[in-house]
Design brief:
4 domains; eight-stranded mixed beta sheet; metal-binding; alpha+beta; single chain; polyphosphate kinase like; Endonuclease, Chain A; EC 2.7.4.1; 793 residues; globular; 20% strand
Length: 793
């Protein structure tokens, strides 16, 4: 097993194709009739939003490499040109499926429910006249037709803009090409007067009334199109005189960047298409013909309709039971949030727990508490009307020392963050806004407070941004702690943001790019050593992406050593599970639900002395080497219990979970005849149960939903388990037999029949009693046989 070449491209999946596989899972949710109609529409809109960003970032980056003549291959053995071709070929049928499902299934379904998207020609004459009047009075003045002819250059087409391509002539002349931009400051969905939920698309309304915009012309064709441009526009930070100026220039350059995709009406005539391809520099392969609407993102507006029968019940984030009581003054009206944190660590889980009642409350208290001396925060993304920023401003106004790290290079949030930098600096707050060569991706805040027993440090380390909006739709975790070691570690991190260097000595936190990769590598290797020694060894990791080839290689080695590994990876995953002798101890899961799974959780069994972590970093090369990231241990037993519940309930989900096959495809887990287990519904119920219970844990753990397999604390005494009734030995193959020291051929399962059993589990088919009295769970017979041999021979 040790002579495998773990750099073989066969063992690695392509990053870009893996990302598209995730987008396909999002699309499948939009086509799943188990979801209510407006929920399906929401997923179709998200598919458009996500793939727009994918083309801007990832396809744009590939095209940039191709233009630069890069031929270096990725770990999966593909050149940029090969990836570009495969990505476009893979994406094309996905867009076709989105359009087909909308046209043939979802649009008629919504119409049957009273929500109609019509063309003007489908409406009664009176409604058409009303819409024509609305067009003439409110839309026509905002339109600017731009002709392309010898007297007029080809107009600039902005990124993601929706346009009409019009071919017109005056008498028998050659047709003229005219571009009409659909105004982005007008609603895309125009309500039909007098109808509750009947709409026309603005582009259809403009087309229907072109005679008012282009009078006395012969309109030969009208086609819709949309342009996607490269967002991978960069400047060398080391030669930039000022990072703010550099980011402003990048934002401006992005407007004029290379076109990476052209979406057009399926029936656009060759004349219009040729003009667009020639003027935009687009290859035939980059043209996507679309039936029906080209852009679904504006359909998010329909999700807010007051139609509770067509979408899941609304979820309102709940107060954390340990903090909600403070707000109502029912427990101790003199007790502050800092007293509560000092009493014991608090784990907030958004959107199940309210962001405003946990993180925002922590920052508000820091701003107003007279004993707080200083407040520091790292902002990667935040809301445009951020209360977080206002809390920091209030803190400065109240005489606190305030330092804020705002990451200007947070892609697509650069403009928003630039505005916050200027506002913070106008308030006299010290702002750091970038580090040469690194992005700051930590989600951390530090409060310094003077107390009777000296200065105390209060920390928040999260997996998600300080963004009240995404906290309602992203599943994220955050630890509020008074742990002094963590506070000292965060002090070093914030000193790096304003100082010259990043310390590489930390007491508890794992900090990228200085210690995190090394520590994670050590922990994976330690599990492998435990497995070889016959001790408890298991890894469960919940992350958004697993791209780093070195981490994949370490996981392969751990699997070969016998470590059972479950990876809950939302989207990108280079690792191929289920390869015999290499990764047959690894299972890759992905969960796609109403909330975006964004939390990162790391569990290492460590021979019976488990370690638990949460933080901002995925196992991507960029996170481990090129970003400032923070991951914190979770040491409180009660909080570990909550993390265990999240992981184990996730692994038994049979509604939202997908499992990767060894070829990189995914299969949805079906409930069949079993009760449906939806992890997000389970966590909502657990949160409500905790709130009903009163002051105490953030979630009430339902022990019937978990396997009790992950350790919360150290194993202090032997575990015993009677062999389950009905163990089936008849299915053991003859090839299980081996020659033993007594000279006879006997199955290892027969030899150690009292050392294994079949657990009552939907996740694991086999269990082995270890020599130390513990239990190890396996999905395959091969894993059991290897463990029995390692443990007892």
């Amino acid at each position: 097993m040790t002579d495998r070449d773990l750099t073989d491209p066969e063992y690695y999946l392509n990053r870009e194709l893996s990302e598209l596989a995730f987008q396909e899972r999002v699309l499948r949710e939009g086509m799943d009739d188990r979801n209510l109609p407006l929920e399906r529409l929401r997923f179709l809109a998200f598919f458009t939003k996500n793939t727009d960003e994918f083309f801007m970032k990832r396809v744009g980056g590939l095209k940039q490499q191709i233009d630069a003549g890069v031929t270096k291959t990725t770990p999966d053995g593909r050149t940029p040109k090969e990836q570009w071709v495969e990505v476009l070929d893979t994406a094309r049928p996905l867009f076709a499926q989105q359009s087909e499902y909308w046209q043939s299934v979802l649009k008629p379904t919504l119409a049957d429910e009273g929500i109609e998207i019509c063309t003007p020609d489908e409406l009664p004459e009176g409604d058409q006249e009303q819409l024509r009047t609305h067009f003439e009075e409110s839309i026509l003045p905002t339109l600017t037709p731009l002709a392309f002819d010898p007297a007029h250059p080809f107009p600039f087409i902005s990124n993601l803009s929706l346009s009409l391509a019009v071919l017109s002539s005056n008498g028998g002349e050659e047709p003229t090409f005219t571009r009409i931009k659909i105004p982005p400051n007008q609603p895309r969905l125009i309500s039909v007067s007098g109808e509750a939920d009947r709409y026309v698309l603005i582009e259809d309304l403009i087309e229907r009334n072109l005679d008012l915009l282009l009078p006395d012309l012969d309109i030969r064709d009208v086609s819709k199109f949309k342009v996607t441009r490269n967002a991978e526009v960069r400047r060398n930070e080391e030669v930039a005189e000022d990072l703010v100026d550099m980011v402003e220039e990048v934002i401006e350059q992005r407007r004029f960047a290379t076109v990476v995709r052209l979406e057009v009406d399926a029936d656009m005539p060759d004349e219009s298409l040729t003009i667009l391809k020639d003027q935009l520099g687009v290859d035939d392969r980059e043209v996507f013909h679309r039936e029906g609407p080209i852009d679904f993102e504006d359909f998010f507006e329909l999700i807010d309709l007051d139609r509770p029968d067509l979408k899941p019940p609304a979820w309102s984030p709940k107060p954390h039971p340990r903090l909600g009581s403070l707000a109502s003054d029912t427990r101790d009206e003199t007790k502050s949030i800092f007293d509560e944190i000092k009493h014991g660590d608090i784990l907030a889980h958004h959107p199940y727990h309210s962001f405003e009642g946990t993180v925002q409350r922590f920052l508000n208290a820091a701003a107003t508490d007279p004993d707080v001396l200083a407040v520091k925060a790292a902002i990667y993304r935040t809301a445009s009307d951020s209360k977080v920023i206002q809390s920091l401003i209030n803190a400065a106004d109240n005489g606190k020392q305030v330092a804020v790290m705002v990451e200007l290079k947070a892609r697509f949030d650069e403009k928003n963050n630039l505005e916050w930098v200027r506002q913070l600096e106008e308030e006299g707050i010290h702002v750091a806004y970038g580090t040469v060569g690194l992005k700051t991706h930590t989600k951390t805040a530090l409060v310094v407070r003077r107390e009777d027993d000296g200065v105390q440090l209060y920390s928040h380390i999260g997996t998600g941004n300080y963004h009240s909006g995404t906290a309602k739709g992203y599943s994220d975790l955050g630890l509020l702690t008074a742990d002094r070691d963590i506070g000292f570690d965060l002090t070093k991190v914030f000193n790096f943001f304003t100082g010259p260097t990043l310390d590489d000595r930390f007491r508890k936190l794992l900090i990228a790019p200085v210690t995190m990769r090394e520590r994670f590598t050590e922990m994976v290797r330690r599990e492998a050593e435990h497995a070889r020694a016959g001790q408890r060894a298991r890894i469960v990791v919940k992350i958004n992406g697993l791209e780093d080839p070195s981490m994949v290689e370490e996981l392969y080695r751990a699997s070969m050593a016998g470590v059972e590994i479950d990876l809950i990876v939302r989207d990108i995953c280079r690792l191929r599970p289920g390869i015999e002798g290499l990764s047959d101890n690894i299972t890759v899961h992905s969960i796609v639900g109403r909330f975006l799974e964004h939390a990162r959780i790391f569990y290492f069994e460590n021979g019976g002395s488990p370690e638990w972590y949460i933080g901002s970093a995925d196992w991507m090369t960029r996170n481990l080497d090129y970003r400032v990231e923070a991951v914190t241990p979770v040491e409180d037993t009660q909080l570990r219990e909550q993390l265990r519940f999240i992981l184990e309930a996730s692994l038994t989900d049979n509604r939202r979970r997908w499992v990767m096959q060894s070829d990189g495809t995914y299969e949805a887990v079906s409930s069949d005849d079993d009760p449906v287990r939806d992890i997000q519904e389970i966590l909502m119920a657990a949160t409500e149960a905790a709130l009903d219970h009163g002051y105490g844990p953030g979630m009430i753990v339902d022990t019937d939903l978990i396997e009790e397999a992950l350790l919360v604390g150290e194993v202090t005494e032997s575990e015993t388990e009677a062999r389950s009734e009905g163990s089936d030995e008849a299915d053991l193959d003859a090839d299980e037999e081996q020659t033993h020291s007594d000279g006879g051929n006997v199955s290892v399962f027969d030899m150690y029949s009292d050392r294994w059993y079949r657990p009552d589990s939907e996740t694991y088919d086999w269990a082995v009693r270890t020599a130390e009295g513990g239990r190890r769970y396996f999905k395959t017979r091969e894993g059991v046989r290897n463990r029995l041999q390692t443990e007892y021979e």
